[in-house]
């Protein structure tokens, strides 16, 4: 009787375990299917000899680095999708790091900046920021480790509700596009009290959410009236003006 009961319990345990595995695998496959992949232009940029991958981080190394920038990707966007943007910064003397986040969700590893900075010592400035959810994730780390960074940037993003940056002295840049239909503008407006008074808000006329990277058009976004290259030119120039000039 006891053996029969134990067998039933064991069988039920196996069934529950199988169900959990099926749910986990189903969720994983769902996220993979929803992932925004890098387009052909981004994949070509990844082939440069100055681009490398080390410890799950894509690194864009200029000949003479003037500053360091760590970019957290948007939710479910492949890090390679930012290769063109990173190359543009690299050509201006910025060493760019894009960590490969678990499931392409920066919120699952908000402290990636710390590991990168420890692995690549530099006396130059260290900036942190990100696109969409990546920016919110970067703000979590920044608010808890403000002494480790020299500046913060947000691309179609804003601080998470628990990330108060209003007291910091470091420069903060917030860029958004007028045709962005992905960003929650109510939350964007409400988050302004979490940023310091000297925050530089930049509006990109005619741009959208998808144009901050090279992964095609994101469902639900507004139509852009400028090219992706034009939008990224404005983003890069704004960052360079603050980081270097």
From TrEMBL:
Q: Which GO terms describe its molecular function?
A: hydrolase activity
- Which residue ranges traverse the bilayer? 12-31
Q: Which segments constitute the Alpha/beta hydrolase fold-5 domain?
A: 69-232
Q: One Pfam family for this entry, by name?
A: Abhydrolase_5
**Which domain of life does the UniProt lineage start with?**
Bacteria
Q: Which UniProt keywords apply?
A: Hydrolase, Membrane, Transmembrane, Transmembrane helix
Give the protein name, as stated in the record. Alpha/beta hydrolase family protein
């Amino acid at each position: 009787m006891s053996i029969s009961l134990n067998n039933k319990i064991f069988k039920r345990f196996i069934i529950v375990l199988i169900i959990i595995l099926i749910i986990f695998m189903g969720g994983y496959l769902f996220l993979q299917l929803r992932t925004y992949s890098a387009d052909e232009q981004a994949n070509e940029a990844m082939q440069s000899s100055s681009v490398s991958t080390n410890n799950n981080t894509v690194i864009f190394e200029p000949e003479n680095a003037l500053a360091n920038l760590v970019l957290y990707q948007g939710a479910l966007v492949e890090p390679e999708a930012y290769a063109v943007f990173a190359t543009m910064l690299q050509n201006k003397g910025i060493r760019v790091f894009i960590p490969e986040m678990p499931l392409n969700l920066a919120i699952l590893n908000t402290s990636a900046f710390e590991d990168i900075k420890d692995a690549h010592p530099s006396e130059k400035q260290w900036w942190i920021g990100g696109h969409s959810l990546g920016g919110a994730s970067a703000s979590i780390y920044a608010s808890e480790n403000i002494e480790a960074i020299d500046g913060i940037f947000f691309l179609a993003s804003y601080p998470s509700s628990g990330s108060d940056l209003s007291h910091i002295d470091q420069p903060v840049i917030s860029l958004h596009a007028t045709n962005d239909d992905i960003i929650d503008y109510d939350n964007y407006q409400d988050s302004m009290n979490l940023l310091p008074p000297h925050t530089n808000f930049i509006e990109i006329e005619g741009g959208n959410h998808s144009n901050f990277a090279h992964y095609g058009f994101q469902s639900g976004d507004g139509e852009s009236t400028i090219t992706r290259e034009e939008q990224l030119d404005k983003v890069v120039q704004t960052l360079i003006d603050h980081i270097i000039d």
